[in-house]
Amino acid sequence: MINQQMYALGAAPNKIRELFMYGLGRKAEIGAENVYDYSIGNPSVPAPDAVREAFLALLEDDPVSVHEYTPSPGDPAVRAAIAEHISRRFGVEAAAANVYVTSGASSAIAITFCAVCQPGDEIITPSPYFPEYKTWAHTAQCKLVEVPVLEPSFQLDIDAIERAITPRTSAIIINTPNNPVGAVYPAEALERLAEVLRRKGDEFGRTIYLVSDEPYREIVYGAEVPYIPAIYTDTIVCYTWSKSLSLPGERIGYIHVNDAIGNAAEISTAVSGAGRALGYICAPVLLQRVVARCLDVPADVAEYAKNRAILTEMLREIGYEFVEPDGAFYLWMRALEPDAQAFSDRAKEHELLLVPSDSFGCAGWVRLSYCIAESTIRASRGVLQALWDSYHAPTLTCG
Ligand code: PLP
Fold first, then answer.
1. Given this model, what pLDDT does residue 118 score?
2. What pLDDT does 397 receive?
3. In angstroms, what is the span from residue 89 Cα to ligand 1's centroid?
4. 151, 181 in Cβ contact below 8 A?
5. Interval 52-98: pLDDT, tens
6. Atom number in ligand 1 closest to CA 213
7. Would you state the pLDDT for residue 43?
8. What percentage of residues in the chain have a pLDDT greater than 90?
9. What is the atom index within ligand 1 of the atom nearest the CA of 328?
10. Which ligand 1 atom minimizes the distance to the CA of 40?
11. Best residue among 106, 212, 360 to mutate for probing ligand 1, ranked by most atoms within 8 Å of CB
């Protein structure tokens, strides 16, 4: 007998990865240049030179210690460097003891949910949302409560969030800049959200933690990304270098329990416990030490900004409706029929890979990852037009 819940997860991979795998197969069959793959958020910008230099320098170190185990929450020197970086960059107190190094944001969020939630609790997410939030909430034996954002701005609906908070709400997870819609939440909205969380927390006699999922913190096109722990004290940041340093397959990130939380030390101990329980200990050591040497290396967003400009102009010319992205490298486009899956399937007939919105908890849209080669974006114009035309074919009339 096997665990049926785990079997179901394994048998039905998330839609992003399903389409990504399909794309790999099609590329092998018909050639990569013939597939317009907007499926996954794999950065198209190479990792900065500083990353390569750090790798090479570290490989010259002692050949045993370079591959050694570190303590479960990470190398003490790496945790101290990350804490110092947070402190300097955001002007806050940050102790190494409140930093837990992880294998990317995925393990950071799974650990955090398990650390601060009890079985049966509710975790709120604005929707659309990153699909794996549901998986990680279920791992923590919690229910994910979806609260649709406002349309057409795709900004937080704070009144709806307030209505969704119950005595069982232990956390809310937000992601700004946002995957999949590209929205960046301004400080005023976050301040209003903080006021609601404080008030409802007082009403129900419990702390509502804000889990801030920040893979795209640096990837913005002029918008300002507020530092959330400075706005809402009970915040736990989940960060990853997957996007900012183009290291998605290397699996490296961190959790920072805001030092100003009254029981930060207790939460950090629970974070360590959850990391242990889930088997997420001692993140890849070489990567820990690489990122510690690259903390001040800026993300290169110029290519994404260019792709964004090319894609939005193209879609506008053809006639598609979409949300102008302020950050991240995703574009949220309205499907040309109510069934996003059917629209995505029709796009596939043109070798165009668009992720349907349903698994993001929202009907009728698709997501395009534009962290791909500029040439692919330009070359996709024909199939985007053909897809549009297939829904707008002139009807023939007799007489
Ligand atoms: N959260 C969001 C919003 C993401 O877009 C991603 C990855 O694309 C993750 C979490 C997971 O990040 P990582 O690949 O570092 O585990």
1. 97
2. 62
3. 22
4. no
5. 999 999 999 999 999 999 999 999 999 999 999 999 999 999 999 99
6. 1
7. 96
8. 96
9. 5
10. 8
11. 106
Cα 106 to middle of ligand 1, angstroms: 6
Phi-psi group of 208: left, alpha or beta (phi > 0 → left; psi -120 to 50 → alpha; rest → beta): beta
Instruction: Give the C-alpha separation, 351 to 335, whole Å.
Output: 16
Instruction: Using the predicted structure, report yes or no on whether residue 231 has a pLDDT greater than 90.
Output: yes
User: What is the CA(7)–ligand 1 centre distance, in A?
Assistant: 23
Q: Using an 8 Å Cβ cutoff, are 216 and 241 in contact? A: no
Which residue in 156, 166, 164 sits closest to 193, CA to CA? 156
SS3 221: coil
Of 215, 116, 139, 119, nearest to 174 by C-alpha is 215
Q: For tokens 């994910």, what's the residue?
A: 144
Could you give the strand order of the β-sheet that contains 99-102, starting from the edge strand earlier in sequence? 99-102, 253-257, 235-240, 209-213, 169-174, 122-127, 143-148
Read off the tokens for 63: 């050949």
Q: How many CA atoms lie within 13 A of 304 on its CB side?
A: 30
Provide CB contacts within 8 A for 141, sequence distance 6+. 119, 120
* Residue tagged 């795209």 (tokens): 216
What's the pTM value of the predicted model, to 2 decimals? 0.96
Task: For Cα atoms 310, 314, 315, give the angle at the middle one, nearest 5 degrees.
Answer: 120
C-alpha 356/C-alpha 341 separation (Å) is 5
The token duo for 192 is 């209003």
Q: Which DSSP symbol is given to 73?
A: T
Single-letter residue type at 317: E
Nearest to 129 by CA among 347, 399, 311, 365: 365
Can you give the pLDDT at residue 115? 98
Return the ligand 1 atom nearest residue 106 CA.
Answer: 16
Decide: 37 and 353 in contact? Cβ < 8 Å: yes
DSSP state of 357: G
Residue 241 and residue 17: Cα distance in Å, rounded?
20
The answer to whether 92 and 230 are in contact (CB under 8 A) is yes
**Three-class SS state of 20:** helix
Nearest to 19 by CA among 358, 381, 399: 358
Q: The tokens 């955001």 sit on which residue?
A: 90
**Pocket (CB within 6 angstroms of ligand 1):** 41, 104-106, 130, 175, 179, 213, 215, 240, 242, 248, 253
